[in-house]
Amino acid sequence: MSKETKETNETKKEKKGGMKKLLIVFVVIIAVVALVIAISTVVSALYLRDAGGRQQEQEQQVSTPKDANPLYKMYGPQDFTVNLLDTDTRRYLKVTLTLGYEERALTKELEQRKAQVRDVIINVLRNQTVEDILDAEGTNKLRRVMITELNTILSRGEIKDIYFTDFLIQ
Q1: In the prediction, which pLDDT does 67 show?
Q2: Residue 142, CA distances (Å) to 77, 98, 100, 138, 160 in order
Q3: Which of 21, 81, 96, 133 has the fewest CB atoms in 10 Å of its CB?
């Protein structure tokens, strides 16, 4: 073989060797990039999950402060119009109210005792004078009396609160 052929073969071998090295470097770079992407995905997923958990805890703490009113099951609203106990003039009270309670079984009992519940509420309302219920203190007292009277007829739970959505004295 001639010198030129030997040099060409050596050049081809060097090129093939260089190509193999280049290919190996390229594969290593791709593997490193893939590894970095995989690690960053795992780390960000763990971070987001942890951050989400902390955010949910913070939301729960914010949304349910210890001194806030709990969210009760509701029965109502119910409308009532009654004459008040005032003797000097004819006055009436128009009220819309909703009962708040916790026990699920009380829902069925309130439906079964609907007439009794209405009777108790009407009797409590009719025994009020305008002076009794004119201010916030009187309204709160009315609420407490009504809760006490209603709970005497209920057996599957108790009324925890009463919400007045309309309160009109005429």
Answers
A1: 46
A2: 17, 14, 15, 6, 14
A3: 21
Take residue 111 and report the two structure tokens written for it: 């439906």
Sign of the torsion formed by the C-alpha atoms of 117, 145, 155 and 97: positive
Cα–Cα distance measured from residue 63 to residue 115, given in angstroms and rounded to the nearest whole number: 37
Please give the Cα distance from 31 to 33 (Å, whole number): 5
Q: Are 116 and 153 in contact (CB under 8 A)?
A: yes
Q: Select from 69, 83, 91 the least CA-distant residue to 162.
A: 69
pLDDT digit string (tens) for 103-123? 988 999 999 999 999 999 999
Q: Tokens 């609160």 label which residue?
A: 161
Q: Which helix (H) or strand (E) holds 92?
A: strand 92-101
Of 71-75, 79-83, 159-163, the range with the lowest mean pLDDT is: 71-75
Q: Which two tokens stand for residue 99?
A: 């009962």
